[in-house]
Amino acid sequence: MERLYLYDTTLRDGQQTQGVQFSAAEKVEIAQMLDLLGVDHIEGGWPGANPTDSDFFDAAPKTRATMTAFGMTKRAGRSAENDDVLAAVLNAGTASVCLVGKTHPFHVREALGIGLDENLENIRASVAHLVAQGREALFDAEHFFDGYADDSDYALECLRVAIDAGARWVVLCDTNGGTLPGRVGEITRAVIAGGIPGDRLGIHCHDDTGNAVACTLAAVDAGARQIQGTLNGLGERCGNASLTTLIPTLLLKEPYRSTLQTGVSPEGLAGLTRISRRLDEILNRVPLRAAPYVGASAFAHKAGLHASAILKNPATYEHVEPAIIGNERIIPMSNQAGQSNLRARLAGAGIEVGRDDPALARILDLVKVREDQGYAYDGAQASFELLARAELGTLEPYFSVERYRTTVERRKNALGQRISVSEAVVVVRIGDQRMLSVSESMDEEGQDRGPVNALWRALGKDLGPYQTHIEDMHLVDFRVRITGGGTDAVTRVIIDSADGQGHRWSTVGVSHNIVDASFEALVDAIRWKLIRDRVAPA
């Protein structure tokens, strides 16, 4: 089997995503996750370009993967030894350095304002300087595919110069993301035919046409043996090729599975979904439900016909076993569901119900009535499970809510600034105990997070014997939808929760009052976690 190398650029290219800004500590955590996954190179950032990247390299974790610093070829008019930008990259002390340089004549003339020969010398001298310092050198051939279309001889000469100077890898970059898979494959084969060995050739694609993964695979098919990408496809504009999609495809799909070997073990692959979702948590982003392999809906089977077949053999509607990548199968419930969906969903929750049990029809009727009232269970599986258990008589009470109250006050603080302050009071009964909790919703910066946050803090502040079981629980998403119209309009709130074990679940609440709908979903979230963790009722 040939070795295929995985180069992750989440910490550099991924940070160019609009709205994304890692802290140095977050970059350390992500680097450790990538190392556990099994990538070969971790591109940590551009030392000297910003304080965060410099701080990261000062505290970069020890990794099995090769830590790589990113920079650019030396500037015109100075030697590689006297280029301060290049020196900052080398001073990061990484074993590997990746330099980006122009390979498109248009960019050389217009962006750099220099001659084509001078650009070649910049590439040669920069790579040679890295090699002389004992570093592994990579050359990112920026705008390569556009440059090849404009002047194939010059684009190839840029690669040859880098190889001759000692570059371990030259990487074909589709910087604008506009090249289609067929053309990527065609040009990659031409590059190899032109004298650049495939085992020294990488591919770096952007997703501006939605084809970054397909373009990357086309380059691999043509002989490239390094692929560059990011977790969850982070990146500038439309993103980069997603390693979260590429890695399972390469490990599980032919012809790659039987012909190519990567550094990702079965254990690393089984942690892929957890890593993908943890990255979104760090970024405070909602995970893409429809993401291939790792999305919450990647193995969701809503149609009754599909669910019936899944019960007999999951391979009827699943191209891989979800557990291989750490995901799970979901049989959503809705007013379109039949008994096949219902039995499959209950079985998945560990609830066995006979085919002829009359409770099945009652649960289906109840789902249809509740969805007519505004509930939506296909996106809130935990609340559906609670509903079914209640109808089957197997729902543990755990606790009951006697009452709650929220207040929002608008006032001036000690500095004369106008602020809002939310407060919540929750009274619950656990057995014979009656417990009252009060909480505000101010964050570390003194900002009010609102009445729902105050309710969550109060509810989760003191649940007596259950407190230790919910301490690792946190809310990751909050979605509001107004259903109906006029005086009959109601508010639907769906809340996504997660815990320290990497589990994630959704609950729903419906009311004319948004706070009341939110509180219903919050209570369901806690009850479901206690059930899932098999906590004994007090």
Describe the structure.
This protein is an alpha/beta fold and 538 residues long. It contains 20 helices and 16 strands. An eight-stranded parallel β-barrel has the order 2-3-4-5-6-7-8-9, surrounded by eight helices. A three-stranded antiparallel β-sheet has the order 11-12-13, with helices on one face. Strands 14-15-16 form a three-stranded antiparallel β-sheet. β7, α8 and β8 form a beta-alpha-beta unit. The longest helix is centred in the C-terminal third of the chain and has 19 residues. The model has no long low-confidence stretch (mean pLDDT 92).
**Cα separation of the termini:** 57 Å
**Share of helix, binned:** 25-40%
Assembly classification: single chain
Main sheet characteristics: 8 strands, parallel, barrel
Spatial strand sequence of the major β-sheet: 2-3-4-5-6-7-8-9
Low-confidence stretches: none
What is the count of β-strands? 16
Instruction: Give the overall average pLDDT.
Output: 92
Q: What's the shape? A: elongated
Strand content: 15-25%
Helix tally equals 20
Structural class: alpha/beta
Q: State Rg.
A: 28 Å
Write the layout of secondary structure elements.
Blueprint: E1 2-3, E2 5-8, H1 24-37, E3 41-45, H2 51-58, E4 66-72, H3 84-90, E5 96-102, H4 105-112, H5 116-132, E6 136-142, H6 144-150, H7 152-164, E7 169-174, H8 181-193, E8 201-205, H9 212-222, E9 226-229, H10 243-252, H11 256-259, E10 260-261, H12 266-270, H13 272-283, H14 304-312, H15 339-348, H16 359-372, H17 381-392, E11 400-412, E12 418-430, E13 433-440, H18 451-459, H19 467-470, E14 474-483, E15 490-498, E16 504-511, H20 514-532
Parallel strand pairs: 1-10, 2-3, 2-9, 3-4, 4-5, 5-6, 6-7, 7-8, 8-9
Antiparallel strand pairs: 11-12, 12-13, 14-15, 15-16
Helix pairs in contact: 1-2, 1-13, 5-7, 6-7, 8-9, 14-15, 16-17, 17-20, 18-20
